[in-house]
Each structure stands twice: as C-alpha cells, then as structure tokens.
Amino acid sequence: MELGLFQQQNLSLVMTAELRQAIAILQYPCYELSRFLQEQAVENPLIELSESSAVFEKSKKKALQKNHSHQDADMIGRMQPAELTMHDHLLHQVLDMPIPENQAAVVRYLILNIDHAGYLDITREEMLERFSITSALFDECIDWLHQLEPAGIGARNLRECLILQMRALGMTKHDLPYQVADRYLDLLAERKLKQIASFLAVTVQEAEQAGDFIQSLDPKPGRKLSQPSDMGYLYPDLSVTENNGSYSLSVNEQFMPKIGLNEGYANLLHTKAGGAAQYLQEHFQKLQWLQKSLEQRKNTLIMIAKEIVSAQQRFLKWGPEHLVPMTLKEVADRIGMHESTVSRAVKNKIIQTPRGAFELKYFFTTKIETVGGENASAQTAKLAIKKLVESEDKAKPLSDQAIAERLVAEKGLNISRRTVAKYREELNIPSSSKRKRYS
To answer: Per the database entry, which stretches of residues form a coiled coil (predicted)?
Structure first.
C-alpha cells in the first residue's frame, strides 16, 4: 500500500450551528424558549427583546396591587413577617427546651441536617467525628431532637418516623400497629397480611386494621413545616377555544418576549470595512437565523395542533374517554414532515383545551383493536381499567385476566392480560393480591 497525500471528493451530511439551533428551538417549551432568548440577547448586542403588552399589563397590575398592600401596611403600622422555614420552626422550639449547653449545639446542627421530608440526613459516625462526642451523648441529643413537633421529625428511617408518631399518640410496643411497624413493615408494604397475622397470632382482619392505621400516619412530617416553593405554573404553548360548537386554535406568544433589531446598531450595519463591520454582519445573520427558527417553530406547532384538533373533535366535546388514537407517523405524513421533527415539536409542549391542559404527546397513543373492527386509544383502555378497579369487589379484586375479559365483553377492547398489567402499572394500580381487603 502506497503512503501519501491524496485529494478525494465525497458527500456527507454536516449539521450546521444554525440547524442545531433550529432543532433546539423546536424542542423548547415557551418558558424555556423565553430563557433561551434572554441568553441570546446577552451574547448578541443586535438582539432587542421587549415584553408583550399582555405580560406588561399583568406585571403592572401586580405592581399596583403590591403598592396598595404596602400603603395599607404603612397605615396600620405593621410589616408582614417573613415566612419561616422548617428549620426556623424547629430552632425556635429548641429555645424553649431545657437542653444542656454541651448538647444544644449538637441538636441545632442536627436540625440543620433535616431534609424537607423531615428525615435526618447525617449519620452517627459523621456526628461523632465532627463534634468529638461519645455515642451515648449523641443518643441523648437524638432524644431531644425527637421531642420536637410535628411528631416523627428527625427520624432516620420510615420505621422510626412511624414509631415516633405512635409514641406521641400514647401507643406502646404492646399495641398491634406498633408491633407491625416495628417488625413487619416490609411485609405490610407487600400486603402480606396473612403472614403478619400468623407471626403475631392475630386475625387477618386485625392485621389489616393495624395496616390501615399505619397508612393514616404521615411518612413525611417535614412537609407540615416546609414552605412550598414557587409553584410550577403551566405556560401553554397553544390554546384551543370553543365558540358555538367550533374550535379555534392560537399560539400563546404572550408568554415570550418579542425579538427585534436593536435600533442603536441599525445604522452601523451599513459600515463597509473594518473588524466592527464583520462583527456586526455575523451577529445580524445570527439574529436573522433566530427569527427564522422562531417562525418555523410557530408554523410547525400550528400544523401539528391543527391535525390534533381536527382528529380529536369527540375528545374536545366529551372528554378523554373519546380520545381518538393517533401516531406521530400519521401526523407527520399529513403535514409533510419527518416523524422525528414531529416528535421534537411535541416534546414538553402544553396545549390548553376546554377539557383542561394536556401535553401534546398525550394525544399520540397506540391503537387498540376493538371487537367491531374499529380502533381505540390506549388512554381509553387505561380509563376503562381504572373504572373497573374502582368498582370491583375489594374482597375479590379482579385479576389482570379477568379485567381483560371484562374489557372485551363490556367495552369491546381486545387487549391481552399482559397489556392490562402494563397499563395497570402505568396507572400505579397494585396487583389484585395487594388490592384485596379482608374487612
């Protein structure tokens, strides 16, 4: 084989930076797209962002309400206290407790290592090493910690959390729920009530009642003191509204800033020479590409949403039980796009409908054959399974095979036992053995 340098021509697909940007923009939901545009405005001086009038009016209204509330507070002469965190509540309780000085610092440190669920997130070994204390002194500090409210706070595991709550209710190790939580929590999770009853020499009904009581306790006591963080609001990318039986579609652009050319640089774009001219031209092209990608994203979403609205008229009128099965490929073929493009476009997108807000991918489900030869959606089958389980005899819950047979007989849905099990797990419905009730 001869070694050397040779010229050769070939064809290959290369993804440009602009194409990668267009793909990324297509996948962004509106709240992420707004953040992306703000980042681009920081990097590109030619980009000027302006909030939509709807967002401006909303912000203005909030500001006016805030000013009025401050004026009212000044008139009363009081200020709203800052919201206390879970750790603040616990530390305030410690101030009223007769904790010895050599233990107070340890207890405060333990409190600061409680997670939002209320569990202690530091090990005994770490504490002994950090404070150079004995194991006995650490146990005394844990006892002080477990006297805090709500009961169960500062527990190191679920078993300890439940037992602390039962102790606060005056229960002892002689009570049946205490014994179940202390020794057979794993069996209770598996609903193996007969085994628990056999080990404790009680009836199955008594074991079930003990399990019901344990389930009534709070497995995450820290949530009672934790301030909820900022709520995750839905920002629909699209909206469907009903007017006299017909449906109209709109893109919610009010949640995104408007992008345009910074007029301060407009005149400089005509500069013919110099490094500044090249710099401005490059960033102007980036601005144009960004505008083009945004318009392409908008048009793609509209085309997909139009197909969904057209196909899901029964869903929009009567609800999820009438969802028509659709696939990404079918929609892609109708609008003349590749299936992967449709898949990227529907990712994390929300559509507001008269039936509520749904992810776009909610409308793309597998087809299930019916006895009559028609097609039903997987969502229809899931709703039917859920209704059957809710109405079943809890003493004799339906098996997956029995559910499959009922679906064929009552709904005409021809699905297998294995498919029923799959849908049941997706709905977080336990198996028939775990749904069985003895009392």
So the answer is: none
| CA–CA gap between residue 160 and residue 152 (Å, rounded) | 7
Length of the chain: 439
CA 9 – CA 396 distance, rounded (Å): 73
46 has a pLDDT exceeding 60: yes
Q: What is the pLDDT of residues 171-200, one digit of tens each?
A: 999 999 999 999 999 999 999 999 999 999
* DSSP 8-state assignment for residue 367: E
- Asked if residue 147 has pLDDT above 90, the reply is yes
CB 210 within 8 A of CB 176: yes
Rounded CA-CA distance 253/271 in Å is 34
Dihedral sign, CA of 36, 42, 48, 52? positive
Tokens 């579609």 map to which residue?
Answer: 249
**Prediction pTM value:** 0.65
Average pLDDT for 91-104: 91
Q: Compute the half-sphere exposure of residue 372: CA atoms within 13 Å on the CB side of its CA.
A: 6
**CA angle, residues 113, 119, 214, in degrees to nearest 5:** 165
Minimal CA–CA distance to 294: which of 239, 253, 337, 352? 253
Q: Considering only CA atoms, which of 262, 219, 223, 254 is closest in space to residue 237?
A: 254
CA distance 59 to 387: 44
What would you report as the CA-atom Rg of the chain, rounded to the nearest whole angstrom? 31
List pLDDT tens digits, range 380-434: 899 999 999 999 999 999 999 999 999 999 888 888 999 999 999 999 999 998 8
Kind plus residue range of the DSSP H or E element containing 434: helix 432-435
Contact criterion met (CB below 8 Å) for 424 and 416:
no
Indicate the pairing of strand 350-353 with strand 356-359. antiparallel
Q: What are the beta bridge partners of residue 130?
A: none
Residue 293 sits at φ, ψ, to 5 deg, of: -65, -40
Q: Which amino acid is at 285?
A: Q
> Torsions phi, psi of 49, nearest 5?
-105, 140
Q: Is 378 exposed, middle or buried (0-12, 13-18, 19+ CB in 10 A)?
A: buried
DSSP, collapsed to helix, strand or coil, labels residue 351 as strand
CA atoms within 13 A of residue 376's CA, in its CB half-sphere:
22
Q: Which amino acid is at 169?
A: L
pLDDT in tens, 324-377: 888 999 999 999 999 999 999 999 899 999 999 999 999 998 888 887 777 888
